[in-house]
């Protein structure tokens, strides 16, 4: 019984993190591939296709900055970088990071970019356009825009997603930028692995909900398995009082039946002992270790005891048969 | 050199070093219904069918017909054996004690037989009554039989009320070479048993041996 509880407890311990990770976990990380490092240049560019799973870096004197574009799908691209300050500009067919030191395609040297990662957010159409200036550069920030969030003035809402989990606030971007980005990004990733991953990414909320449901179902099964024989729990579900009384009577009768069976077994054992004694006495008589009178006396005693036992056994058998 | 003759009773020969001594007089005694007659018939049947020894059954209580019918249940065809001259059943009246010896002697000589059963000598004892006359009669009879080297079984009854004696008048057991006592014990699992009370020149078993009556006759059981 104790082992049963222990096993159930362990299973629950395993399940909780699983549920937790499914609900609260870094979903995008489950579907992101490992970054691939490439040599960088003073101008960091990539085409829409080559941006996936790319680790790009740039050396600017003594400063090396890195950013990662993890994945993209149709109408979707997210780029993350470690420091919150910097701009991400997408020009034509390239995704460019304007780096510090003015060694970029954009003449505005004041714009800076920082290392980034790309996360796929399956239930949105995300396009990363640019970064909002933020003071805390310790954290990681994501900027996403969805074409579904088109405003009446032609602008689109971009979400600033803190660690990819919760939206914090919104920024506005222009249509022109959005169209440009769509052109770049409207190419389906041909990698089969990514196709599969993208399938799940696009329906992440659905799969998450299915996972939670399965976990809860297993949890309930564990509870049932653990407590199925617990009398206190069983009694809670016994709404039928008459049934409960009948059960009690049945239990009593069962105990009586068991007692009868035990008594019967005891008597049978005694009978076997008498039979053994008879046989032993006969052997002694045949070997002349007993005289005739003693032999007759003993045999009479055994016979009497045997008859009494047999009668008692027969009586008990009738009682036992009544129960069956 | 002692020659032993198999009795024909399964299990009995091993209790007496191989069988009866050739030419001996052997008493089978017991209360009524202890299977004395069956033993005697089995002894004769075995001699006639297995050892080619002719036998004479002298009966003082049962008729020939009864004996033949009784033995058929064990597969012993005394009718057929009589026709072949291997066995003869001779009825003798108890009061013919005086002429019994000559009758027996004549039959033995006529048949040239080797096995003899006298069932039982008790009737003669009743007739003679007197202890000394009984002893004299039996002594004479047994002496004659020994001279003729006839392997003999005689039967005797132990009265119900008597425990100490092995025969009706307590005489015959002293004149024979072997005494086998049969008994019937109601309380035992196997109710019939025998004991070799005495056997001259033989290291016989001292124990009581249960036996049963099967379809083929008496069978001595191991203890």
The order of strands across the largest sheet of chain B is 5-4-6-7-3-8-9-10-11
CATH first level of chain B: Alpha Beta
Number of strands of chain B: 11
Order of helices and strands of chain A: HHEEEEEEEEEEHHHHHH
Oligomer: heterodimer
Helix share, percent of chain B: 25-40%
User: How far is the first residue's CA from the last residue's CA of chain A?
Assistant: 31 Å
Shape assignment of chain A: elongated
CATH topology of chain B: Rossmann fold
pLDDT averaged residue by residue of chain A? 59
Percent strand of chain A equals 15-25%
Would you kindly provide a written description of the structure presented here, covering whatever features stand out?
The complex is a heterodimer of chains A (324) and B (223). By secondary structure, chain A is α+β, with helices and mostly antiparallel strands. Chain A folds into two domains: 31-202, no CATH class; 238-323. Chain A is built from eight helices and ten strands. In chain A, helix 1 (2-24) packs antiparallel against helix 5 (204-227). Chain A is elongated and about 130 Å long. The model of chain A is unreliable at 25-149, 158-173 and 175-192 (pLDDT under 50). Chain B is α/β, with parallel strands linked by helices and 223 residues long. Chain B has a single domain, classed as 3-Layer(aba) Sandwich (Rossmann fold). Helix content of chain B is 31%, strand content 26%. Chain B has six helices and eleven strands. Chain B has helices at 36-50, 64-72, 78-83, 97-111, 122-128, 131-147, and strands spanning 4-5, 20-21, 25-30, 55-59, 87-91, 115-119, 151-157, 178-184, 192-199, 208-214, 217-220. In chain B, the strands form two sheets. Chain B has a nine-stranded mixed β-sheet with strand order 5-4-6-7-3-8-9-10-11, with helices on both faces. Chain B has a two-stranded antiparallel sheet with strand order 1-2. The model of chain B has no long low-confidence stretch (mean pLDDT 90). The chains are: A alpha+beta (324), B alpha/beta (223). The A-B interface holds A 278-279, 282-283, 285-288, 295-296, 299-300, 303 and B 185, 187-189, 193, 206-210, 223.
